[in-house]
Amino acid sequence: MQQKDFKMQCLWAGGVLVGLVCLTVFLFYNQQQVKQSDNPVRGIVVETSQMMASANRPVLSMYGYVVVPKALEISSPLLGDVEKIEVGPGQSVKKGQLLIGIESSEYDRKYREALAEYKSVCAQIKGEKRASKINQEALEQEKSLFQLSKKRLVRQKKLAEQGAVAQIILENSQKEYQQHGLEVNKRQALLAKHESTIEILQATQKSLAIRVERAKDDLDSTNIYSPVDGIVSDVNISLGGRIDSKSLIRIIPDGQYEMRAQIPAKYTGMIKEVLENNQVLSGKIILDSTQVPVRLEKLLPVVEDGQMGQQGVFTFVEQSDSEMFAHKMPVLVRLALPEVENSYVVAQSALYPDNTVYVLDESSSLKAVKVERKGFSYQGGDEPMLIVTTSESLDQQDLMLTHIPNPISGLAVEKYSEDG
User: Fold this and answer.
1) Which of 29, 104, 181, 357 is the most exposed place for a label (fewest CB within 10 A)?
2) Residue 122 — very low, low, confident or very high, per pLDDT cuts 50/70/90?
3) 82 in the Ramachandran plot: left (φ > 0), alpha (ψ -120 to 50) or beta?
């Protein structure tokens, strides 16, 4: 019995010993794992790109639609009866083609009257100038006679003092001198009157010239011509009807399409400033493999309800390109914005939340840098790249392009190398 108990005690002691050995091995192994996990993870391989600041032009991508501009409303300021109508709704017209003729006899009469008055004043001016020239010549003669009579009077006075000339001869010389002086004054007065009359007539001439021009314009305007090639959509007057200055004919121009797209509010202020400085903002409509050049002409003043921005109106650089499109056709347009100085172009994979990118320091550890997004660049093709600016220079620094989960400053990484 005692022997049996001794064996049981030995077995129990052996089991305890084996358990202690296993526990020691287990604790030692787990302690090694904890120590390894406390060490920073190294060896994350990332792709990088060396940065250099430059002037980069952002490109704004938008969806828009091609439309026909507002139809042309043809009207006339004249009053009169319609004498002829040469077109009808749906008819194609060419630029310069006659549309409507207004009864012109009254306007012809006014033009002829104004022209006659104008010619009469021109003739009066011509007559006054001729008379002025004659009086000027006569004045020169009178001045010569006046000088001669003056010399004669002086000589007669000297002779009279010597008793060599009778008193009556001296008196006649004095009368002659005075008479020539009066004639000189009369001629000068006539010349002054001619000048005054010519000035008045020339003022009347200018006024009549304007009247003649207006009367001629009115007479010419009795025939209304099409200002563009297009299609007549409406005719709002009938033969014999009275013109009342309202819209007479509506024309939709041929091929005069424009493109409209919503400009985000973020860019409207900058774009307004550029347009006010008469600078050109160019863009391209992307149509399959074709790029059609367009130009931003203006921003519409009305902001559509529910839209954060304003509509931009684009025109085709070459109007013939507009023939590729249909009314209300949706298109993708890319608008080139002004250059951003001292900016960087980075891949979208390099940008992290809160507009953060990471660069590698001398020890290949990550360093977080805040950036400001300025737009997209398509210099490398259809894949957009980000244009960013920073408060600190990134020149000659390696930017991490590989997007890794949860990066932090100080994390050690390895730059990718094709050599492995």
Assistant:
1) 29
2) very high
3) beta
Coil, strand, or helix at residue 84?
Answer: strand
With beta carbons less than 8 A apart as the criterion, state whether 67 and 313 touch.
Answer: no
pLDDT tens track for 315-363: 999 877 887 887 788 999 999 999 999 999 999 999 999 999 999 999 9
Q: Contact at 8 Å (CB) between 48 and 398?
A: yes
Q: Which tokens go with 346?
A: 């980075």
Concatenated DSSP letters of 284-307: EEEETTEEEEEEEEEE-SPPPTT-
Q: Are 142 and 183 in contact (CB under 8 A)?
A: yes
C-alpha distance from residue 47 to each of 130, 294, 344, 347 (Å)? 96, 38, 17, 11
Whole-angstrom distance, CA of residue 246 vs CA of residue 89: 17
Q: Is 336 helix (H, G, I), strand (E, B) or coil?
A: strand
Q: Residue 136 corresponds to which amino acid?
A: Q
How many alpha carbons lie under 13 Å from residue 235 in its C-beta half-sphere?
20
CA 395 to chain CA mean position, Å: 36
Q: Identify the CA nearest to 222 among candidates 334, 135, 366, 105.
A: 105
pLDDT, one tens digit per residue, over 29-83 is 554 443 333 444 446 899 999 999 999 999 999 999 988 777 788 888 888 899 9
**Order of all β-strands in the sheet with 98-102:** 82-85, 98-102, 223-225
Q: Please name the residue that has the structure tokens 């938008």.
A: 62
Neighbours of 22 (CB within 10 A): 10
Contacts of residue 140, Cβ cutoff 8 Å, sequence gap at least 6: none
